[in-house]
Structures are given as structure tokens and as C-alpha cells.
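It is worth pausing here to work through a concrete case rather than discussing structure prediction in the abstract. The textbook approach is simple: state the sequence, then state the predicted structure, then interpret. We follow exactly that order.
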Amino acid sequence: MNRADEIRAKRARMQASSGAGEQASTGAEAQPRPEPSAAAPEQESRRAEEQASRGAGERRPIFPDRKPRRAAVRVDDVKFSVLLSPREHAELVKWCADAASQLGRTRVPTTDAVKALVRLLLTERSLREATLDELEEMNRTKFGGN
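Step two, the predicted structure:
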């Protein structure tokens, strides 16, 4: 029994188990599917040959006539979340209030402070080194290292 026959048998079992109630409600009787033509075994052998020629790990493309797309380049801002302890959050809010008074502004949003830190992190070598040291310390305390 090939795979197509197994699927047909399973469908017939499912229809039989769901009962004639469905057939009566639709008013349609189950029509037997026509037997596969002689071309079906030929197609199966051709598929097997294609799979063997591709190798074990390769897959056949769904749309072989289409060119593969390149990854899309992001143009919009990316949003992410950071979980802070209540103490860290309160300190950040206080720092932003102090920064606002130093800058002569009514407020400095915490998101702006984080954006500024990211920019500095990417450009300032000393900040990168200090951040790596802090990450190492956080890892040590979190996982109980030396």
C-alpha cells in the first residue's frame, strides 16, 4: 500500500467514524475517488530520483521558478523591552529628572536616556570596556562564579 492509498484509507475511516449524520446534513454522499493513473508510479520514481540527486539535507524549493529573496533591510525603529528592578527604575527616573534640570528641559524620557547610552556604547571604547566588566560581574553574581 503506497502513501496515497494510506491517506485515502484514513479519510474513509474518519468519515465512517464521524457517522452518516454529516452526510445527511450536507445531503451529499461520499464519492469514491478515481484510482490513480498509471502515471502515478512514474511520478513517484521521478520524485525519488530528484530527492536522491539533491542529497539528504537539501529541500526542493516550493516555487522553483522564483528567485530566492534577500533578507529585508529594516528601516523602521526596533522596539525592545528591558526589565529593571524597582530600585533601578527609580534611580533611572531620578537621573532623568536631574538630567532634565541640567539641560533646561521639563523632562528627559527614560527611553531617550537608554538610546543615548546605546549610542555611546557603540562609539566609546571606555564605555564598552566598562560595560563588559559590568556584564562579567553580573554573570559572576548570577551564576555564583569566582
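Step three, interpretation. The radius of gyration is 32 Å. The chain has a mean pLDDT of 80.
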